[in-house]
């Protein structure tokens, strides 16, 4: 690669910003995503992403299960330009669509935006996703949404955020009123006021600057001036008494900048986006299994697969493997090597994801995500690289499943296809497999219900194996050291099983059962995956 090309690559990589939006369902993730896409000109009207979510635009040849649920591959990765930045937003499906892929998507981003419903505070799914972001040490930005509704006190929300998630918070702006009395935001970062409905006051001006004392500059006729003053004082106090703003702490995921706003009213979203882009990181470097650090602007192309979407079209077996590019530039038709097997593969059929349509990749560099049509070559966590110097990125973590099912073949004569299917799907990362200690019966584990449905569907369609699944329900999985195990410790309330690496674990019925166990066997150490 010539020096010119190298500079060009460096410039392109530096302008990438790749992040995920995490939230509990209904907090407003789709609404805010849509606003961001509107700013970037990627969509023309609000409702586009939502319509996709509800399946209105579903293409007829999508996998049946996807159609029913309205999961759209095209909204899995959304790309747009804003100012001089190229932004990739990765979707993290929630609710019934929650799966290990949701977690794995967080392995492919450089930052996360956490959307919180200001009436509800920190909810369960946010907590789970946050934990993964924390483990990665990526910067986390918080958007407290639905300020146009009567919510909880901002101070209470900040306190809860800090306590529940154990992260320091730094408010970038502070609400002036809330719900019906919402007047605007005191923007501490820019030292200005952002009016909620500027047309109703402030002579239509959205932003009112403040002087260094926090007083309104110039002549402004504003409603409820005393309330503004009170909030300014409150916010200044908070600034003095609260956490210090630190770019390093943000970059390390130790301090989360908090923005208030209302996605539905497009209030505070643009301010958020602009500040976010200022502090969100460029594509990060990645470490190989050998401990080498690969920089994103290195000219040799490499990347890893973090998600595989199976069977888009029931008539074909092809799947889409989602690749995070870690270094270099993707060129259509390029030859790469698959680290795991050493197999050479030509990447001729690849796709980039946009909000409106799937498009063929034209220019993708480190930080970007591309979809590779896959006929069964790839597994989750695979590395591919260009050239002769082998690169193999670290394994993706495994996540502790929470839902379990007993599974057996419907037709006992078809054991072979049953075992083949289950083993391949386990290897691919679609589902986790356990065996009960004594009876050797098969138990599959997942973090979301969708994984079971996909499993059943793929077993039938790809391996011609009908399965019978019976739920064991929600369980808390905890691993134990084999040397600390006595097989008599197992019972129906703490089922003893082994994982596919032959490691023993208990599936506890609930927290009480786990506590009871720990009280009875205090010497036994219980551990979980992420
Ligand atoms: P999600 O992707 O996180 O699941 O949430 P989504 O954006 O779909 O938003 C959930 C609901 O909350 C939607 O209402 C949406 O309109 C509403 N919402 C989002 N942001 C705000 C906000 O700032 N203020 C208020 N008041 N509501 C907000 P819905 O009735 O479920 O859907 P729809 O029928 O309005 O589309």
What can you tell me about this protein's structure?
By secondary structure, the protein is of the alpha+beta class. The protein has 13 helices and 30 strands. The protein has an eight-stranded antiparallel sheet. The protein has a seven-stranded mixed sheet with strand order 2-3-1-4-5-11-6, with helices on both faces. It has a seven-stranded antiparallel sheet with strand order 27-24-26-25-29-30-28, covered by helices on one side. α11 crosses α12. Bound molecules: guanosine-5',3'-tetraphosphate (G4P). Guanosine-5',3'-tetraphosphate (G4P) binds at residues 23, 25-31, 50, 145-146, 148-149, 262-265. Guanosine-5',3'-tetraphosphate (G4P) is lined by residues 23, 25-31, 50, 145-146, 148-149, 262-265.
Class of secondary structure makeup: alpha+beta
Query: In the CATH classification, which architecture of the largest domain applies?
Result: 3-Layer(aba) Sandwich
Q: First CA to last CA: what distance?
A: 40 Å
Radius of gyration: 25 Å
Shape: globular
Which residue ranges are poorly predicted, with pLDDT under 50 across at least 5 consecutive positions? 54-74
- Rounded average pLDDT: 86
CATH superfamily of the largest domain: P-loop containing nucleotide triphosphate hydrolases
Bound ligands, named by name, code or SMILES:
guanosine-5',3'-tetraphosphate
Helix content: 25-40%
Biggest sheet features: 8 strands, antiparallel
Task: Give the strand line-up of the largest sheet.
Answer: 18-17-23-14-15-22-19-20
Q: Give the count of helical stretches.
A: 13
Count of the domains: 3
**CATH C-level label of the largest domain:** Alpha Beta
The count of DSSP E runs of length 2 or more, i.e. the number of strands, is 30
């Amino acid at each position: 690669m010539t020096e010119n090309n190298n500079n060009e690559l460096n410039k392109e990589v530096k302008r990438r910003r790749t992040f995920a939006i995490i939230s509990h369902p209904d907090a407003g993730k789709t609404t805010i995503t849509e606003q961001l896409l509107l700013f970037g000109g990627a969509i023309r009207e609000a409702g586009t992403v939502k319509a996709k979510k509800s399946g209105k635009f579903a293409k007829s040849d999508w996998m049946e299960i996807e159609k029913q649920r309205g999961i759209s591959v095209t909204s899995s990765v959304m790309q747009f330009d804003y100012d001089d930045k190229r932004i990739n937003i990765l979707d993290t499906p929630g609710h019934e669509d929650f799966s290990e892929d949701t977690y794995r998507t967080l392995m492919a981003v450089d930052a996360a935006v956490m959307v919180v419903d200001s009436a509800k505070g920190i909810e369960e799914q946010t907590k789970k996703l946050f934990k993964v972001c924390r483990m990665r040490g990526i910067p986390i930005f918080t958007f407290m949404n639905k300020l146009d509704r009567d919510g909880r006190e901002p101070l209470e929300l900040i306190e809860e955020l800090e306590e529940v998630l154990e992260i320091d918070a730094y408010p970038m702006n502070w609400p002036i009123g809330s719900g019906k009395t919402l007047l605007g935001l005191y923007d501490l970062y820019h030292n200005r006021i952002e009016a909620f409905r500027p047309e109703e006051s402030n002579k239509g001006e959205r932003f009112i600057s403040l002087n260094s004392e926090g007083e309104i500059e110039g002549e402004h006729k504003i409603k409820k001036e005393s309330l503004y003053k009170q909030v300014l004082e409150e916010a200044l106090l908070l600034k003095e008494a609260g956490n210090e703003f630190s770019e390093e702490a943000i970059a390390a995921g130790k301090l989360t900048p908090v923005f208030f706003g209302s996605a539905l009213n497009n209030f505070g979203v643009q301010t958020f986006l602009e500040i976010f882009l200022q502090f969100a990181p460029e594509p990060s470097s990645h470490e190989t299994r050998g401990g080498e650090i690969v920089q994103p602007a290195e000219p040799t192309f490499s990347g890893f697969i973090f998600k595989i979407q199976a069977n888009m079209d029931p008539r074909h077996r092809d799947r889409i493997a989602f690749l995070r590019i870690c270094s270099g530039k993707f060129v259509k038709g390029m030859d790469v090597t698959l680290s795991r097997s050493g197999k050479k593969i030509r990447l001729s059929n690849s796709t980039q994801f946009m909000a409106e349509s799937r498009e063929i990749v034209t220019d993708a560099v480190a930080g970007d995500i591309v979809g590779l049509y896959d006929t069964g070559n790839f597994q989750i966590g695979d590395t591919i690289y260009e050239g002769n110097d082998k690169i193999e990125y670290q394994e993706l973590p495994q996540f502790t499943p929470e839902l379990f099912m007993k599974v057996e073949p419907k037709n006992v004569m078809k054991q072979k296809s049953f075992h083949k299917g289950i083993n391949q799907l386990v290897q691919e990362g679609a589902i986790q497999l356990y065996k009960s200690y004594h009876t050797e019966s098969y138990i599959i584990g997942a973090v979301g219900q969708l994984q079971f449905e996909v499993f059943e569907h793929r077993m039938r369609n790809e391996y011609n194996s009908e399965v019978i699944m019976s739920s064991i329900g929600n369980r808390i999985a905890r691993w134990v050291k084999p040397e600390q195990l006595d097989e008599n410790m197992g019972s129906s309330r703490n089922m003893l099983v082994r994982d596919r690496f032959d490691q023993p674990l208990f599936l506890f019925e609930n927290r009480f059962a786990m506590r009871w166990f720990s009280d009875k066997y205090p010497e036994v150490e219980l551990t979980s995956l992420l």
